[in-house]
Structure formats: structure tokens, C-alpha cells
Amino acid sequence: MNTDTDADDAESTSNCGATTGEAESEPSGSSPSASGSKCGASIAEADSAAASSAETAGSDSPSGSKCGAGTSGSSASRSPASKANSSTAGSKCGASSSKKREKTKEKVGSTVDDFDAEPGRLVAVGLGPGHPSGMTERARAALLAAEHIVGYTTYIELLPDEITERADELYDTPMCGEVSRTEEAIDRALAGNDVAIVGSGDPNVYALAGLALEILESKGATATMVDFEVVPGVPAAQSCAARLGAPLVNDTVSVSLSDHLVPMPEIESRLHAAAKESFTIVIYNPWSRKRRANFEKCCEILLAHRDPATPVGIVHGAGRDDERARIVELRELEELGETELVDMTTTIVVGNEETYVWDDRMVTPRGYETKYDY
Predict the structure, then answer these.
(1) Distance (Å, rounded) from C-alpha 247 to C-alpha 361?
(2) H or E stretch covering 54
(3) Which of 72, 183, 258, 345 might form a disulfide with 285, Cβ 3.0–4.6 angstroms?
(4) What is the pTM of this model?
(5) 364 has a pLDDT exceeding 80
(6) How many Å apart are CA 192 and CA 150, to the nearest integer?
(7) How confident is the model over 272-286, as pLDDT tens digits?
(8) pLDDT exceeds 90 at position 253
(9) What 3-state class would DSSP assign to 138?
(10) Judging by DSSP bridges, how do beta strands 229-231 and 121-126 pair with one another?
(11) How far from chain centre, in Å, is Cα 18?
């Protein structure tokens, strides 16, 4: 959401501000090295780290980060090759390592009282669809101003070199490391750094802006304390709609098929509610190897309420090098779940009863035709 194999240091530089004490034990085959804290908080012993990390991130890693993942890293190197050289390491939800990254031995669960420094700044930045040209100027400026950038590995790799080369430190975790990397970003900010946590699309659409505020509250901090700001980005629904024509110009509902955080019965209930009304429906996270049944159930529910000929737009990898788009009828949707067109980078737009296809574009009337002659 892998055991920690990246165990070269028993004591290492704090990622986000802990002054590490003595490591209770060294991993087998490790080469211990002591290095000072970069920032601010103090922690006691590393033996509590693993339990806290497993509790927060679901990891069975033998080490835990005070700011989140079992392994993490950052170093002062500004090599532009750091993105290309990153490799997944460490805990199930751990961080990758590269020339800008090094491991830490810290526990999850610090509070605002653990940090002595004057707090820095935390900005949640939406990258938009993925390609640098789809990033807003405000997002670019925020990232160029950040000292530390934290995010999902894929999103860090999507950043332009001008941004990664300028950052002092990068920190990334693979899929399912949301809590660990968000806490990492917060702890770095509480330790006095200017931090950006990045995500695709917009930080308020199935993303981490809300989680950041929840964790700040749980630590006894406030949003004001770290001058918390959300920098919006173009959400997947809008970037995909633009690729398909004009399908979202009337009332629209979005539903994620991921049952990682929301039980499938609730997702089904929402699909029934949306499908029986005249909403255009945007489906996020439609398919993964573990969730084939969710996609199949979604298709079944949609067909129970809508004409099988309803236009459906499918956009894979919007704004990325492998972008593909296709418009089909609702009756054809389920069989496409077995193809490369539909995966976790795909967004699906299901038209309402008025949506039609014209000149290879989806069109959902806004209602002007009822009042105007044209």
C-alpha cells in the first residue's frame, strides 16, 4: 500500500528533523555510520520505529521512519540522474533511494512537541495530468521554491529536471505509501524546511490535501503553523474530458472503484445512485489485477440503469507519453477491462441520456438548445 533490504546504516541522518539516539540493534550485514540530524526533533531509540511504522503504513519492515516509511532518503546531491537511478527499496510502503536519498532510522508518530526548530512551510501541489506542459505556472513556482519535495515515486519521476535539480532533497515512496510520505512531508516542515508534497491532478481530488490536514491535527500542530497551502492542478476528469470533446458541461459525479479505503458495498451504492440520475459519471481507478471484480460490477450497475448504446469515453495515461483515447458504447466497456487500455492510469467518462458522439467527439448538451435557436 517487501521487507526492508536497504540496511546499510544503523544510524543515519534524520530525514525530517529527529536527532537520532542509539540504534537498539543493527540490521544483519549492516555497515553502521553515524551522521547528524539535518533538522530538528529528537527521538529516543530506534527499536520502537518498526512497530510504529507497521502501525501507520502497514509495513513489516524492521525499521521505521519518523516521517513515514521504513526506508527513505535524501542527500545533498543534485545530480539530474537521481530520478533515473532511483530503485524501490525498503518497507512495503517505503521510500526509494537515489543519489539524493539516504536511509533513516526514525519512528512514526512524532508530535509537534518533538520539534525544536521554527516550523517551515508545507504546500500540497497538484501536477495536473503528468506532462510538464500540463503543470500550472503556480505549481511550477511552488516547486521551484521548495527545499524538499515529497511524493509517490512515479510523480517524482514526472517532475522536470529544472525542478528536481533545484531541490535540496527528494523523498518518494511507492504505491500505498500515502500516509508515510505525507507524515514525512509534515515532519520535514515542522523541522523548519520548506516542503512540497506532490500528486497528479489536483490535491483535493482523491489526493493528499485532506490527509495532510488530518495528520497535522493529530500531531497537535495547525495548518497555520506550517503556512499550509494547496496549489491546484488540472484534475484527471477535466484533462480527459478535454481529450474526448465536451462530455462534462452538465452535472457530473466522480466515483473511484478503489476499495482500498472505501468498502465496495458503498461504492456500489454510489454507482446505483449516480447511474439512475442524469449525471455524467467519471470513473477513477477502474482496474487493477486485484480489483477486476470491481470493474465488472461497475459495468453491471451502469447497464442496469443506462442504455447500452450510451457513449463512454476512455482515456489511458492522459498527458503522458503512452496516452490513448477511445469512445465506445457502454455495452462494450466490460470487455475492455481485459486490455491494456484500462488500468489504474485510465479515467472513464460515462455519458448521460443526452450525450452523443459527433465528429469523433463526445457532446453532452448544457441545455442551451431549449432556450435558444442556433
Answers:
(1) 8
(2) helix 49-57
(3) 258
(4) 0.72
(5) yes
(6) 15
(7) 999 999 999 999 999
(8) yes
(9) helix
(10) parallel
(11) 25
Q: Please check whether residue 151 is in contact with residue 181, taking contact to mean a CB–CB distance below 8 angstroms.
A: yes
DSSP 141: H
Q: Exposure pattern of 65-104 as b/e (b: 16+ CB <10 Å)?
A: bbbbbbbbbbbeeeeeebbeebebbbbbbbbbbbbbbbbb
For residue 332, give the 3-state DSSP assignment. helix
User: What distance in Å separates the CA atoms of residue 351 and residue 249, rounded to the nearest whole number?
Assistant: 11
Task: Report in angstroms the alpha-carbon separations of 25 from 15, 32, 73, 226.
Answer: 20, 10, 20, 34
Whether pLDDT at 247 is above 60: yes
Residue with cell 462494450: 332
Distance from the first to the final alpha carbon of the chain: 52
The answer, yes or no, to whether residue 66 has pLDDT greater than 50, is no
Distance CA 301, CA 293 (A): 12
Strand partners for 254: 282
Instruction: Work out whether strand 245-246 and strand 361-363 pair parallel, antiparallel, or are unpaired.
Output: parallel
Helix (H) or strand (E) holding 235, with range, is none
Residue with cell string 490535501 = 209
Per-residue pLDDT tens over the stretch 183-229: 999 999 999 999 999 999 999 999 999 999 999 999 999 999 999 99
List of domains in the chain = 46-106+115-231 (3.40.1010.10), 236-363 (3.30.950.10)
Q: Cα–Cα distance between 211 and 230 in angstroms, integer?
A: 12
Residue 272, burial from CB neighbour count under 10 angstroms (0-12, 13-18, 19+) = middle
Which whole number is the average pLDDT over 240-244?
97
**C-alpha cell of residue 184:** 514525512
Whether 310 shows a pLDDT value over 90: the answer reads yes
